[in-house]
Design a protein that fits this description.
The chain is of the alpha+beta class. The chain has helices at about 30-40, 75-95, 110-120, 125-135, 140-145, 150-155, 165-175, 175-180, 185-195, 195-215, 235-245; strands at about 50, 55-60, 65-70, 100-105, 220-225, 225-230. The chain contains eleven helices and six strands.
Length: about 250
C-alpha cells in the first residue's frame, strides 16, 4: 500500500498589504507520526519472506543476527510439543528481523515420516510454515494411529516396497489426504506430491549430511549461528539461548 504523501503542506494564504514584501511560508516539518507511518510502510515484512534453500525452507531476514536451523520430524512428539509452544514466539522474533528460522526434514521415524514431509514441502514457500504448524497442532490423531497394532503390521508389509509406495500407504493410513483437503488442497494434488522422487532425494541427502557432518541423530536438533544448541529440545530451553545470541 502506497502511503499518502504527508510531506506536501498547504501554504497559508495570508493577506499581504499592497506594496509589502511577500515572505514565502516555510513548509512545516513532517509530523513524527507521519514519519513513523512512512517508515513502517517501507519496512520489510520478514514473516512473509520465505525461501526454499538447498536443505529446507527459511523464513525471515536472510541477514538476521541470529540464524536458527531446526532438524525436525513431523511425527515426532517432542517436535510437536516444540511446534505448539514455540511457533508463535519464534515468529515474533522473525518479525523483528533479528532472527531467521530454517526447517530441515529429518525422518527420524522412517516410513511414517515420508508422507507428511513430502506433503509439507509440496505447496510452495508461502504454505510451508502454516502447514508445518497445522501438522503439529493436529499431531495427536497421528500419534494415536502410530501406536495402534495396525501401524506395526503396515510397517512390516512396506519393508520391501519402494519409498514412494511407502509414502502413499502411510498417507492413507494416517489420513493425511483428508487432512490436506481440510487445508484447501485437493486429493489429486496431495497424491501427486507423494510421487515427488526428487524432493525425497533432497530429504535423504540433507539427512545424510546432517548425520555425517553435524552429528544429528534425533529430533528436534537446533543450531544457532552454526553451533549446536545441545540438549535444547523445548521452547523453554531454546529461548534463553536465542536471547543470549542477541534476538
Amino acid at each position: 500500500m502506497r502511503p499518502a504523501s504527508l510531506l506536501i503542506a498547504a501554504l497559508a494564504l495570508a493577506a499581504t498589504p499592497a506594496g509589502a514584501a511577500h515572505t514565502p511560508t516555510k513548509k512545516p516539518a513532517a509530523r513524527p507520526a507521519a514519519k513513523a507511518a512512512a517508515h513502517a510502510a517501507k519496512a520489510p515484512v520478514w514473516t512473509n519472506m520465505v525461501v526454499r534453500t538447498a536443505e529446507g525452507f527459511r523464513i525471515g531476514n536472510p541477514n538476521a543476527k541470529v540464524q536458527l536451523i531446526e532438524y525436525g520430524s513431523r511425527t515426532c512428539p517432542v517436535c510437536g510439543a516444540f511446534g505448539r509452544e514455540g511457533t508463535k514466539p519464534l515468529m515474533a522474533y522473525v518479525a523483528s528481523g533479528k532472527l531467521s528460522w530454517e526447517f530441515r526434514e529429518f525422518l527420524v521415524h522412517g516410513q511414517p515420516d515420508i508422507a507428511p514431509a513430502l506433503l509439507g514441502r509440496c505447496f510452495g514457500t508461502a504454505k510451508f510454515f502454516p502447514i508445518l504448524e497445522r501438522m503439529y497442532l493436529d499431531q495427536e490423531a497421528v500419534e494415536e494411529k502410530l501406536g495402534a497394532p495396525e501401524a506395526s503390521a503396515l510397517a512390516g508389509k512396506m519393508q520391501t516396497e519402494p519409498p514412494l509406495a511407502v509414502a502413499q500407504a502411510w498417507a492413507d493410513y494416517l489420513d493425511y489426504i483428508p487432512f490436506m483437503a481440510k487445508l484447501g488442497f485437493a486429493p489429486a494434488q496431495s497424491r501427486a506430491c507423494l510421487t515427488n522422487g526428487k524432493d525425497l532425494d533432497t530429504i535423504v541427502r540433507v539427512m545424510g549430511e546432517a548425520q555425517d557432518k553435524l552429528g544429528v541423530n534425533g529430533t528436534p536438533s537446533f543450531f544457532i549461528n552454526g553451533k549446536s544448541a545441545g540438549r535444547a529440545y523445548s521452547w523453554a530451553s531454546l529461548e534463553p539461548l536465542l536471547k543470549a545470541a542477541g534476538v
